[in-house]
From TrEMBL:
All residue ranges annotated as the N-acetyltransferase domain in the record: 21-177
Coiled-coil features, chain-numbered ranges: none
One example GO MF annotation: acyltransferase activity, transferring groups other than amino-acyl groups
Top-level lineage group: Bacteria
Protein name in UniProt: GNAT family N-acetyltransferase
Length: 205
C-alpha cells in the first residue's frame, strides 16, 4: 500500500539531522510490519525444513513479540535506514544469556550496511552487565550468516546434530560481562499467558 499523503519537505538542516542508520525498540505501530516481514523471511529461507517453518510461524505471533517487549522493549529492535524501518532483531532472555531468535534485513535494504550497524547496536545494548553471553543457532549450510557472526566476535562452540526437526544447528556464542547478581528465568508465560496466546492466535493477533 502506498501512502499518497503530501507533506512539505523538511528544511535541509533537519533532513541532514536524520542519521543514515539508527536503532530503536519497536513501537506498537511497528509490530504489524515487523511481524509480516518475519513471516516472509521464515517462508523464503532455504535453510529450514517445513516443520521448523510451521513451528516458528505459529510460535512467533504478535502476542509473543509483545511478551518479549514486556521483558525489555529492546527485545524487538527495529533497524532504521534514513528513518525507515529496514530490518529487525528479535531476542529473549535465557537464564543469564540473551538468545538471538531472528535477525534479518528487509529485501529493499539488503544492499546497505544496515545489518552491520544492527550487529554493533545489539551488543551495545545487551552487553550491559546482565548477561554472560549472547548466542544463536545457525544452520551449517548458512555460510553467509556464519561468516558475519564470526566477523563480529561470535565463536562456534558446537554443532547440535539432528537437533530441531532432524536438522543440524551450529551454536554461535559471544561472551559478555555479567556483573549483576541473580538470573532471569527465561521467557515463561504460565497457564494464563498460554491461554491468552491461544486466544490471540484465534483472533489473528
Amino acid at each position: 500500500m502506498t501512502d499518497t499523503t503530501l507533506t512539505a519537505a523538511p528544511p535541509a538542516a533537519e533532513a541532514r539531522a536524520v542519521p543514515r542508520f539508527a536503532v530503536r525498540p519497536a513501537t506498537a505501530a511497528d509490530l504489524d510490519l515487523v511481524h509480516a516481514e518475519l513471516m516472509a523471511v521464515i517462508d523464503e529461507s532455504p535453510h529450514y525444513n517445513a516443520e521448523f517453518k510451521a513451528y516458528e510461524k505459529a510460535r512467533l505471533t504478535k502476542s509473543y513479540l509483545r511478551m518479549l517487549q514486556r521483558q525489555d522493549p529492546w527485545h524487538v529492535m527495529c533497524l532504521l535506514s534514513e528513518g525507515k524501518v529496514g530490518g529487525a532483531l528479535i531476542s529473549g532472555p535465557e537464564f543469564g544469556a540473551v538468545f538471538r531468535y531472528w535477525s534479518w534485513i528487509f529485501p529493499a535494504f539488503r544492499k546497505t550496511r544496515l545489518g552491520m550497524h544492527g550487529m554493533h547496536a545489539f551488543d551495545e545494548h545487551f552487553d550491559n552487565g546482565k548477561f554472560h553471553k549472547a548466542y544463536t543457532y545457525v544452520r551449517p549450510e548458512n555460510e553467509v550468516a556464519l561468516a558475519l557472526l564470526r566477523r563480529y566476535g561470535y565463536t562456534e562452540t558446537c554443532v547440535l546434530k539432528t537437533h530441531i526437526f532432524g536438522q543440524d544447528y551450529c551454536v554461535m556464542e559471544k561472551p559478555y560481562t555479567k556483573v549483576t547478581v541473580g538470573y532471569d528465568h527465561g521467557v515463561g508465560t504460565g497457564r494464563l499467558g498460554r491461554l491468552v496466546q491461544a486466544l490471540n492466535g484465534l483472533l489473528g493477533r
